[in-house]
Amino acid sequence: MPQVWIDFYFEIISLVSSIFFYIKKRNNLLLYFIPFLFLTVLIEYVGGWYLSQGVRNYWIFNVFTTIEFIFYSFLFYLHFRKQGLKKIVIISMLFFVCAVILNLLFIQGFDKTFNTYTFLLGSFFIVVFCCLFFYESVLPEKIDQQLSKQPFFWICSGLLIYYLGSVIINALFEYLRNNDLGEEGKRIYGTINHTLNVILYSSFCIAFFLCRNNKKISS
After folding, report:
1. Do 48 and 4 contact (CB within 8 A), yes or no?
2. Contact, 81 vs 74, CB < 8 A?
3. Is the dihedral of CA 219, 128, 143, 14 positive or negative?
4. Which of 120, 123, 137, 188 is deepest in the core (most CB within 10 A)?
5. Is residue 219 situated within a structural domain?
6. Residue 1 falls inside a structural domain
7. For the chain, how many structural domains are there in total?
8. What is the full DSSP assignment across 164-211?
9. pLDDT at 199 over 80
10. Measured distance between the N- and C-terminal CA atoms of the chain, rounded to whole angstroms
11. Taking a C-beta distance cutoff of 8 angstroms, is the pair 79, 91 a contact?
12. For 15-37, how does the pLDDT look when each residue is reduced to its tens digit (9 = 90+)?
């Protein structure tokens, strides 16, 4: 039985919430999240099981994080109104996919280690997309509703906090490892990482609750 952390339960709550509110509200945003969150829960469980058996699970998360970045970028592409911003998303993701392939084949490999280079690159792109969302949201023609009442505001806020925090803790992990802080370093890293996950999936739940009936993500 793999070790289960509190953030795993928040992932499950987020999945259940997406299904419940989709049945109730039939919102396209929720429909996109249901298979993604189901995959997230499955990957976390399988990855934890591999770890409990002493088997490397790097390849699982290397593949999943690639899917994760593409999924979030797809949401931003749908949400942006300006064609210029949509083009930025497309170009960024094409560059990201090429970087992933090169990294897997020639640099960090498929299952030797977690692909930190492409994870940091993907995190950078998501942070940029979040900033572009907030920029577009404050334009005069877009100010028709409070940001706090918009589902995508909460999704974007959660992603911004999570990926900014992930960049910091990955840099922190390298420091902890280089200074031989051992178990204490792992505990600090794990606590921060689990907290970021709780924030992310809690923000998703708020967004799902705010979704309007039959309201498309792009509207």
Report:
1. yes
2. no
3. positive
4. 123
5. no
6. no
7. 1
8. HHHHHHHHHHHHHHHTT-HHHHHHHHHHHHHHHHHHHHHHHHHHHHHP
9. yes
10. 44
11. no
12. 999 999 999 988 999 999 999 99
Q: CB neighbours (10 Å) of residue 8?
A: 19
Q: Which amino acid is at 4?
A: V
Burial track 54-69 (b if 16+ CB lie within 10 A, e otherwise): eeebbbbbbbbbbebb
Task: Please check whether residue 15 is in contact with residue 38, taking contact to mean a CB–CB distance below 8 angstroms.
Answer: yes
Residue 152 resides in a domain: yes
Please choose, from the candidates 212, 216, 151, the residue with its C-alpha nearest in 3D space to the C-alpha of residue 24. 212
What does pTM read for this prediction? 0.91
Q: Is residue 111 part of a domain?
A: yes
Q: Which residue has the tokens 């897997």?
A: 104
What is the domain extent for residue 127? 6-210
